[in-house]
Design brief:
Elements: H1 2-48, H2 56-73, H3 75-88, H4 94-109, E1 118-123, E2 130-138, H5 141-147, E3 151-157, E4 165-171, E5 176-177, H6 182-190
Antiparallel strand pairs: 1-2, 1-5, 2-3, 3-4
Helix pairs in contact: 1-2, 2-3
Length: 201
């Protein structure tokens, strides 16, 4: 009976905790954005339109984000943004925090993460020890000629933050291909192996 109760409780935590934290973070983001922007937008709407609906500031925030993206991707933004970013990364605090947050944002939201071609296993950091990796690209012919064998680029992510890691050149014949998705492998890596989503493939 005690074992069954413990199993039910753990199963409930596994389901409830991620859901509750996700909802909490979403509501907190909504509240912070609404409180921050609302203090400036509410008086304007009240004066010009005679009403203000809580949450309009969130729409303004999304519009602002789209405008930033539009500016950053056009010709002018491509010229100015690198200069601004270089200046920011020289400031105290910003140079420690900004690059890490940017890497995390790119990993979570950019389609570039799908450039991971396939999940693989490689013997790393030594023989007999296997690490999850992502096949990213073929090695250049000049590299293959230097090492005198067919090698490929494999990204070895770190845990629990798979944003960073190592790029290693592995002989193709030593690469073990796994029939699982990138997302499944990432869940396992982020959890430190506690969540073995690989079994679900």
């Amino acid at each position: 009976m005690r074992t069954a109760l413990r199993r039910y409780f753990v199963s409930g935590i596994v389901i409830f905790l991620p859901l509750a934290l996700t909802i909490y973070l979403f509501l907190m983001m909504f509240s912070v954005a609404d409180n921050f922007l609302g203090r400036y937008i509410e008086p304007y709407f009240a004066r010009e339109f005679g009403f203000y609906i809580k949450g309009i500031s969130i729409l303004v925030c999304f519009l602002f984000i789209f405008l930033i993206g539009f500016f950053a991707t056009n010709f002018l933004g491509k010229k100015i943004y690198p200069v601004l970013e270089k200046w920011l990364t020289r400031l105290p605090f910003f140079k420690q925090v900004y690059p890490a947050i940017k890497q995390m944002a790119i990993f979570l939201f950019s389609p570039e993460k799908m450039s991971f071609r396939q999940v693989v296993l490689v013997e790393y950091p030594r023989k007999g020890v296997y690490s999850y990796g992502f096949l990213t690209n073929e090695a250049s012919q000049s590299v293959a000629d230097k090492v005198r064998q067919d090698v490929c680029h494999v990204f070895i992510p770190s845990a629990p933050g798979p944003v960073t890691g190592y790029v290693v050149l592995v002989p193709r014949k030593e690469v073990i291909y796994l029939d699982i998705s990138v997302e499944q492998a990432i869940r396992t890596i982020v959890s430190g192996g506690v969540v073995n989503s690989v079994e679900r493939s």
